[in-house]
């Protein structure tokens, strides 16, 4: 297979995160509006071009008050920083279908290198004869590294919001003609 442009099918894709709440449970959320540019040979991602852009306003934690707080200056400050982006800068093959994809991750005006563990889930044809590829990826980052420092102390000790954020991505992409 040769390098091609792949269009992300948002209806079969997800961008989700998990963060500790009150040091005892986890809160999950998703971003419902994102775009990705993937120019790659799914059999060898080492020279792929991968870019992500996420509309932070599309956050959904199934709680409107919490979502609005996350949109505020306490967290994402979407009035000044409406998008989160990732641009791959280095891709290393770990095994047949597994890669370390490192890139410039930008959130709230701060850009730092972040590495995603990416798996090519497979390539095949849909019922209409279109080539489709599946990718999954995950990473962990410290939200404080990106200026998301708001927190509240708990009476019992500890804090309301954990520092470590786990990000999980599931992508289905269609090869463009």
What is the β-strand count? 11
CATH architecture: Beta Barrel
What is the number of helices? 1
By CATH, the superfamily comes out as Lipid/polyisoprenoid-binding, YceI-like
User: How many domains is the backbone divided into?
Assistant: 1
CATH class division: Mainly Beta
- Poorly predicted runs are none
What percent of residues adopt helix (DSSP H or I)? under 10%
Q: How far from one another are the termini?
A: 14 Å
Integer average pLDDT: 85
Biggest β-sheet strands, sense, barrel: 8 strands, antiparallel, barrel
Give the helices and strands as they follow along the chain.
EEEEEEHEEEEE
Q: Outline, from the CA principal axes?
A: globular
Biggest β-sheet: strands ordered side by side in the sheet: 1-4-5-7-8-9-10-11
Strand content: over 45%
- Here the CATH topology equals Lipocalin
- Which structural class is indicated by helix and strand composition? mainly beta
Radius of gyration over alpha carbons? 17 Å
Detail the topology: elements first, then pairings.
Layout (H helix, E strand, L loop, with lengths): L3 E5 L5 E8 L3 E7 L2 E8 L2 E12 L3 E2 L3 H8 L11 E13 L2 E10 L2 E16 L5 E12 L18 E15 L2
Antiparallel strand pairs: 1-4, 1-11, 2-3, 2-11, 3-6, 4-5, 5-7, 7-8, 8-9, 9-10, 10-11
